[in-house]
Every structure is written in C-alpha cells, then in structure tokens.
Amino acid sequence: MTNHSDKSKRLLPDSKNLSVRAQSAGIEATFEVFETIDSTQTYLLNQPVAELSHGRTVLAGVQTAGRGRLDRTWSTGEGEGLLMSTVVRLPLQDHRLSLLPMAVGVGVAQAVAGYLPQVQLKWPNDVVVADEHHLFKLGGIVIALHPEGGGESVCVIGIGLNLMISEADRPIANARSLADFITDIPEIEEIAVAVLAHVHSALQGSSARILQTYSQLCCTLGRAVKVELPNGETFEGLATAIAPDGGIEVTDGKVTKTFRTADIQHLFTA
Question: Which of these, 196, 193, 162, 192, lies nearest to 178 by C-alpha position?
C-alpha cells in the first residue's frame, strides 16, 4: 500500500464547472459545493420537495455531522474524501425502488473500478476491498426518502468515499482509502462525475440486471457471516444469495433466512 500526504489534487471544484462537466457527459445533474456543511444528506432532506429536482447534487469538503447507515455518523477531514448527496426521483411503483441500494452500490463500485479494479461491495452498501482474511472499507452509501414526496419517491442518496486518510485519522480499524492501494488519486471533480454517471447508468437496468451485477460484485456471498439484527438477535451461517427485493439469504445448514435490515459481519478464518 502506498501512503500519500499531498492533498493538492483534491481541492474542491467549482459548482458551475462541475455542473457543466456533468451535463457534457450527458448526466442530468446540477451541483452545489460547500467547503463545510453539517451533512449533505440533511441539507437536501430539509429542502422543500419541489426544489429537489432529479440530479440535484450537494458536494462538501468537510462534513461535521455526516449521516451514515442506521443513523451512524460519517465524517472526514478536508480534502480526504468524496462527500456528496444526490437526488433521484422515481415513480412510486417503480421496480427499482426496492433495489435502489443495490443499483447505487453497483454504480459507485463501477466508478471506483476505473481506478481500483479489485473494489467490491459488502452487503448491503459498503464499498470495500476484501481478501480471504481481511475486509477494508473504502466508503458507504445511505439512502433516505424525502417525507413529502407526494406522487413520487424522492430519494436522497448519500455517498462517502475515502480518497486519502492517514492511519491516525482512520475512524475504524479497517477503514482505508484509495491512496492505500493506488498512487494516482483522482480529483474530486473527476470521481464525482464518474460516480454519478455510473449510478445513473445502473438505474437504467432491469431488476434482473441490477441483481446480477450486484451479486457479481458482492464479496459477502459465499462467506461465513454473523447477522446482527436491530433488536440484538444474531444469526450465523453462509451467505448464499441476494433476494429479489435486495435482501440477503443466509443459511446455517438447517434454516435459510432472508434479512433486509441488519448488520453483516464477515467471519474470517485465522
């Protein structure tokens, strides 16, 4: 792994240039850029729903109270990561809604694969690098529905990706960044547009296509895992498949259960 201390490549881009670059790439997106914000996710969720156009995207240099999955926090220092939230509007009965975490995960992983081919996904929405004995987290995805969507599902998608963090600043022991694996770290502008392009592309796929691609990228499948439920219950077994609604199927050899809201811990052999 390579260590980097140069943050000059990761200066915050100008919002107008970002919007123009996205539109030139054929992406329906407009950007707002903040040097510091409490949470890009909270900012968009607090906007009137009529102002949340499809593709409206907020990007920040620093988050002081970033939102992670299951109400966890997500924060990085200045220039250390891609921190953004984007709006996707879907019809209420759209087949992609239940698979939105999978489709977004596919898009983010495909974008990162342009720089780091070994990137994978840990169910449901962690962006990781994994081998037989270790799992390193590069980023994550959180999705929330605006409470006043009306006739549409107004989805606010938060994406966090570590570009460069020092060992001392790692929020958890297995946190890593692109700089730990590659020498040429992309500019925030470049990877932000790449991520949006791949996410929008993934959302055009059928349910079958989304599930197939996600399953190919998901390193949780075929692993011995421990499932931790919100009520404190646990279940251990082999992760065997992604269910049609995006849940994960785990069997202990006697019973197969499908989990939709849970923490998954990979059980590695020594």
Answer: 162
Report the distance separating Cα 68 and Cα 239, nearest Å. 24
pLDDT averaged over the chain? 89
**CA neighbor of 237 nearest in space, from 226, 228, 246, 221:** 226
| Mean per-residue pLDDT, 98-111 | 96
Distance, CA of 178 to CA of 164 (rounded, Å): 6
* pLDDT band, residue 70 (cuts 50/70/90): very low
d(CA 118, CA 138): 12
Q: Are 252 and 236 in contact (CB under 8 A)?
A: yes
Going 243 to 161 to 187 to 178, the CA torsion angle's sign is: negative
Determine the longest span between alpha carbons in the chain, in angstroms: 57
Q: Nearest Cα to 18, choosing from 153, 173, 147, 190?
A: 190
Mean pLDDT to the nearest integer, 11-40: 90
